[in-house]
Automatic annotation (TrEMBL):
The central subunit of the protein translocation channel SecYEG. Consists of two halves formed by TMs 1-5 and 6-10. These two domains form a lateral gate at the front which open onto the bilayer between TMs 2 and 7, and are clamped together by SecE at the back. The channel is closed by both a pore ring composed of hydrophobic SecY resides and a short helix (helix 2A) on the extracellular side of the membrane which forms a plug. The plug probably moves laterally to allow the channel to open. The ring and the pore may move independently. It is found in: Cell membrane; Membrane. It is a multi-pass membrane protein. Belongs to the SecY/SEC61-alpha family. GO terms for cellular component: plasma membrane. Component of the Sec protein translocase complex. Heterotrimer consisting of SecY, SecE and SecG subunits. The heterotrimers can form oligomers, although 1 heterotrimer is thought to be able to translocate proteins. Interacts with the ribosome. Interacts with SecDF, and other proteins may be involved. Interacts with SecA. It comes from Ulvibacter antarcticus. The chain crosses the membrane at residues 20-38, 80-100, 120-142, 154-174, 181-198, 218-241, 272-293, 313-332, 373-395, 401-421. Keywords: Cell membrane, Membrane, Protein transport, Translocation, Transmembrane, Transmembrane helix, Transport. Its main location: membrane. This is Protein translocase subunit SecY. GO terms for biological process: intracellular protein transmembrane transport; protein targeting; protein transport by the Sec complex.
Amino acid sequence: MKFIDTIKNVWKIEELRNRIILTLGLLLVYRFGAQVTLPSIDASLLGGFSGNFAGGGIGGLLDAFTGGAFSKASVFALGIMPYISASIVVQLMQIAVPYLQKLQKEGESGRKKINQITRWLTIGICLVQAPSYLAGLSALGVPAEAFIMGQGPMFYVSSVIILVTGCVFAMWLGEKITDKGIGNGISILIMVGIIANLPQSFAQEFASRVFESNGGLIMILIELVIWFVIILLSIMLVMAMRKIPVQYARRTASGEYEKNIFGARQFIPLKLNASGVMPIIFAQAIMFVPSAVASLSSSDMAQAMQATFSDIFGLWYNVVFALLIIVFTYFYTAITVPTNKMADDLKRSGGFIPGIKPGTDTAEYLDRIMSQITLPGSVFLALIAIFPAFVVKLMGIQQGWALFYGGTSLLIMVGVAIDTMQQVNSYLLNRHYDGLMKSGKNRKAVA
């Protein structure tokens, strides 16, 4: 009943209600577009092509991020991933390119210019990925008769234009959800695409266990319990932080009466996993390289390497994958958590960490703490990333359903769900309602 009351409070706020309705409408448009096949391809002949992605593997992983659009040769087949790739490249370039560093310091105007650069880079990446995707359709199982216009220049030109336009339109939908909806538009599009495959994957696992006498309902119950535990652990990983106490010798607080506060104590929150899912995305991109390079050679060693790095549930694939995640976690944390800047800002504001000198000593102390908490955070992140391989090998879970037991899919769903709930909470609290984790009662405004 408390949860129902909270939902009612959400709908009482007209602005929040309109934002939620707009978000749901734009998500429906995105999901509808994911079902629309390219005009030059016969959708009725894509059964074999779609079947190649049903059993997991690298193809299943790519299909999961696009919500099934990749396996349907949809107008949204590239999904939103080119924009994510462009964002990562621009973010890394901000470390080395002085012009981007300058834009980063210009506030809102600089941010708009960086976003514009990201959009143009997204189009450039699409122009590379779209022809590669179209050229690989035949090799992935699309029969020749499915190409209505043949595979000539007209097919490539028209299909590339449609795929690029589809990606740009998906990017626009994400930005509208961020500006006019409940926020986190790009992340929500990715999450919805991942969740779209969940019912079918679970139905296949249920049919395998129950109708094929492969463990029955007991195994389904055990799998759901393990899945729930992994979700709780992922939430702990996303939310966990180390609080560094900070003391201010003197601060001025403006309220009903202005007064001086001596010895006020606050905290600097250092997250256990400050890099989020980015190390997994980086590592996943690197893991595609050995298989692609090995496919260029016909030697026995190259074929063995291709087989090893094409099996995302294999032993050596996951060992290398876990090591890369740990390395990239340290790398990404180092470039995204500016301990020197944090120390300088703290010194300018008159704050200090008890027992630590302001300035260089504070920066070294924060850097040492980040290094200490990043190790368990990176190991925990790596374990969650490779956990699908454990459930496949030890419990015999189908590969499509196993992808939801860890890795990028689960962490994105958990992270986006938490961020979205915080966005909704902020609207409720601003309008004097308790948040989603409270009872949902209308709180009296403080005069």
